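Hi C.,

You asked whether I'd gotten around to modeling the 320-residue construct. I have! Everything is below, sequence then structure, no commentary in between.
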Amino acid sequence: MEERPIPTPGPGDVLIRVSSVGVCGSDTHYYRHGRVGSFVVNAPLVLGHEAAGTIVGVGSEVDRSRIGQRVSIEPQRPDPDSEETRRGRYNLCPHMRFFATPPVDGALCDYVTIGDAFAHPVSDAMSDDAAALCEPLSVGIAAVRKAGLDGGSRVLITGAGPIGIVVAQVARAYGATDIVVSDPDESRRGQAKQFGATMVLDPAAGPIGDLGVDAFIDASGAPSAVVDGIRAVRSAGAVVLVGSGAESMELPTQLIQNRELVLTGVFRYANTWPTAIALVESGRVDLDAMVTARFPLEKAAEALDSDRTPGSVKTVVAVS
């Protein structure tokens, strides 16, 4: 822990007193290994990008009526003039400054600043924890949108960690009727059932097989899960890679060609927060039920190791 000055919001920014911060797998990777893929920690870094809080100050170009609003933080600063941002794909902006991604500090602290448009108001019906967890929920929304799920869809999800659980909830909210979740851990398979899975599979018991699902969403990053999942998709179905795992892997390209599968990835999200907030406030997605541990900011190190606790789904750091 260290004392730092309260940041000053820029003209188009808001100053937020942080209330809750969810612990993400990327946080634990930075903490234990000092890197996530090509992103390397070369200097002290404040972790945490799943965050919520209350606006306590505004920049000169922001309406002062925003002071006092409870908000969910979309933790990114894209370049408004980049080609990707102008196309509406601001998550792909090459000049992105994203919370807790080197060298940008994150939200495991008392105060942060963010652009006015990236501080999304939430109602008093939403808890601080749920407001923070709109961030991983946005990953699930981005994945389900890419998969093209709607009423009556059948989907396979590999990996029943926090993102797999969120994807299952969003798939159910979007009207999917068959939600199959595969995970080698028995307790995680049980948790998946609680959050919307209509069927669970143990990949250690054998190949998943040709399930004929409309879409496959990988939330594990495991090469074996990706290959098995692709084989489970019907002709003209969708394959969406969300889990961050191996830098490269072998894929059944002939099957992908012959079935005309659409294969794509998900990198963060764009234009998801209104949907995330609506899903939570309507009760169609339950983020509070995913919280299995809470720690004060002073015990953030324990929070970053809590994913090793059996039965852990989501840990939250209560900042204030």
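If it helps when you're writing up: The radius of gyration is 19 Å.

Thanks,
B.
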